[in-house]
Each structure stands twice: as structure tokens, then as C-alpha cells.
Amino acid sequence: MRYRHAHVELDPPSLGPWLDGWKDAGPHAGALALLPESQARHVPFLQAAFRERGLALVGAIFPALVTDEGFSTTGAWLLGFDAMPPAFLLEGLGRDGRADAAKLAEAARTHCLRSPGEPAPTLFLVFDAMIPDIASTLLGVFGEIRDTVRYAGVNAGSETFRPLPCLFDGERVVSDGVLGLSLEETPVVVKHGYPVAKTLMRATSTTGNRIRLIDGRRAMDVYREVIRADFGVDLTHGNFYDYAVHFPFGVISAADVVVRIPVAFEDDGSIACVGEVPPESMLRLLRAPSLDESPCVDAIAGALPAAPGRGPLLAFYCAGRRMHLGGDAATELSRLRQATGASALVGALSLGEIGIFEGTGIPQFHNAALVCA
């Protein structure tokens, strides 16, 4: 994936010259725009500027941007392509997972075509984080098109998890949707590096991303007991938001442990997470590691293909991970740039991350991860 990148302010004196210097790239030029939530009001201006110059546009709104200095809530990243990758924008998802999977699979068939013998393109997906069944939708897509694509992506939206129209193209701004790009020859690495606690539990009643019962008891009661027993933390309703990001659930599978960060609880004792928790899932409580304990950066650097003189690294960083690490999150990004040899970090703060189960090609929905391309 080759692109030119710029961090620009969304006003005519800043955006206009950049677009004017690039609009003659060719008839198929376009860009992917990454905006922080604070700049959402500027999307119509951005769309109009691209339309005036005959340039294609797709984009998404995130809590913040990733830069060489850490995180930014000003301006926008523009990733400009001389030949815009095939892209699509779907809306109205989140009501029928089976229908959503069929719609997304059909869009992938249309936009991710490849000739016989060519490697599978990477289908990079940006979902609205408010969609409650992304994990099962991805599995439904895999059931339809299998490994004809490589799956990767992130969630966009507000860090408050309030509804926000967060996906757009040159004409529309939508919520409850997904943006898809077909990227050739783009290896993507997704890692979280979270250690696993001792206690094994079963989610005996779940609905989408909400855990109602664990081992037949109110989820909040069990969660509180396990945190106290395994980590010595006395959890209350008052400090839930202070501690939950540091002690997420791990959904156990044959291939991996997938992180699910608790973000809310209800009076009935149920706990809502970022991402689905399938009924009867086996769970372990995780302890989010400190920066110096985490093997994540080294794992990413080791998994990316060797690239002497590497250009910019497209990097998405989980908002929950930043909440856990605080000021060390910017340090982790600095270490990522150094370890990978990237000339720059270009990306955003994400609300869920998409990779694959190693060796299977099956898509996997994460929390607390970094996505690097």
C-alpha cells in the first residue's frame, strides 16, 4: 500500500494547497481521511473540497489521531493515493447479523476481485463501534467468502460510546455502518500482549456484548470476587470505571485469548463490553500489563516484514489501552516507531481492532490491541 500522507488543518489555507498540489495525480486519485472527534463538524467542508477537485474520498472519525508525538485532537490525517483503492460504504447495520454478513460479503466480492493466482487482497474494514455484533458478522462474512481476502480493521466513533455518525465518503456521513477498502500487498499485524489470570469462568448467559451471568451468577458479583481474589482489588460501583479497563475479560478460544474490555454495568448486575461475548464462552480475567511488562511492541516489530528504509507505519491504538497506560501510551508509540524503523506514525485511536486467527485466515475481533500496516 503506497500513499502520501499529511497532517493538515481543516481550513481553506491549509487544506486547499495540499489538495491543489495533488489533484493532477490522475483521474483515479483519492484519499482516506482520519479525523478526531473534535473535528467532526468539518466533514462537510472536507467533502466539498474533494468534490470541487474531482478527488475520491472516504474516511472515519475516531477519538483522537496517532502521530509521532503521541495523540492529537486537531487537524486530520489524509492518506492520498494516486490510484484510489476500491472502497465501499454500507449503512443500516446492527439489526440483523445474518443479513449484515451477506451484505458485507457481497460488497467484498464486488470490490475485492482478484485474478487467478494473485495473492488475496487485504479487506480493511472500519466499523461504527456502536454496532453490537461485529465479531459474529465477521464470522458470517468468512462463512460466505472464506479466505478470498485477508481481514483487518478497526472501530471508529466516540470514546464516550455515544452514537456518532462516524463514517463518510464524498457525499454521505453515516452511522451504524462499515467502510471497506481493498488493499493490495498490505500485511497487517494485530497484537495485545495481555497476560492471563488463573481463574477460569463460563459466561452462562450473554446477549451480544453484554454478559448477564457468569457461572450462573450475576456477572458483576463474580467479576468483583475474581478481581479481589486474583489481584487484591476491592471493586465497587463507584470505582468500576477506574479499574475495569485494567482488568478486562479474556475470551478463551483454541487459537488465542481475545480481550473484551468492560465499559458499563447495569442494575441487574450485567456487564457490557466492547465486542461480543458468545454464550457459554470460557473466560479468564486479564491484568493489563505495565509498559515495561508488555511484549507487544517487540511482537509487532518481529511480525512485520523486514523493510530497510521503512516508510510511514499505519498504526491504530486501542482507546482502552491508552486509558490503562495513561502517559505511557505515548511512550509505547515512540518505542513502536523505533522498533519498526518507521519514518512516521500515521493513524488513530481505535475502539476495537480486527485481525485473524493465526494460520487460519478467520477474522477475529479484539480489544486492547495495536493494528499496524
Anisotropy-based shape: globular
Helix content: 10-25%
- The number of domains is 2
Overall structural class, as computed from helix and strand content, comes to alpha+beta
DSSP helical segment count: 9
Number of strands: 26
Strand content: 25-35%
Distance, first to last CA: 9 Å
Poorly predicted ranges: none
Question: How is the topology of this model organized?
Answer:
Blueprint: E1 4-8, H1 12-20, E2 30-36, H2 43-52, E3 56-62, E4 65-67, E5 70-72, E6 76-81, E7 87-90, H3 97-111, E8 122-128, H4 134-145, E9 150-156, E10 167-169, E11 173-174, E12 178-183, E13 189-191, E14 196-207, E15 210-214, E16 217-218, H5 219-231, H6 240-243, E17 249-252, E18 257-260, E19 262-265, E20 271-273, E21 282-286, H7 296-303, E22 313-318, H8 319-325, H9 328-340, E23 345-350, E24 353-356, E25 363-366, E26 370-372
Parallel strand pairs: 2-3, 8-9, 22-23
Antiparallel strand pairs: 1-6, 2-6, 3-10, 4-5, 4-23, 7-12, 8-12, 9-24, 10-11, 13-26, 14-15, 14-21, 15-16, 15-20, 17-18, 17-21, 19-20, 22-26, 24-25
Helix pairs in contact: 3-4, 7-9
What can you tell me about this protein's structure?
The protein folds into 2 domains: 4-191 and 292-372, no CATH class; 196-286, no CATH class. The protein has 9 helices and 26 strands. It has helices at 12-20, 43-52, 97-111, 134-145, 219-231, 240-243, 296-303, 319-325, 328-340; strands spanning 4-8, 30-36, 56-62, 65-67, 70-72, 76-81, 87-90, 122-128, 150-156, 167-169, 173-174, 178-183, 189-191, 196-207, 210-214, 217-218, 249-252, 257-260, 262-265, 271-273, 282-286, 313-318, 345-350, 353-356, 363-366, 370-372. Strands 14, 15, 16, 17, 18, 19, 20 and 21 form an 8-stranded antiparallel beta sheet that branches. A hairpin with a 2-residue loop joins strand 15 (210-214) and strand 16 (217-218). Helix 3 crosses helix 4 (134-145) and helix 7 packs parallel to helix 9.
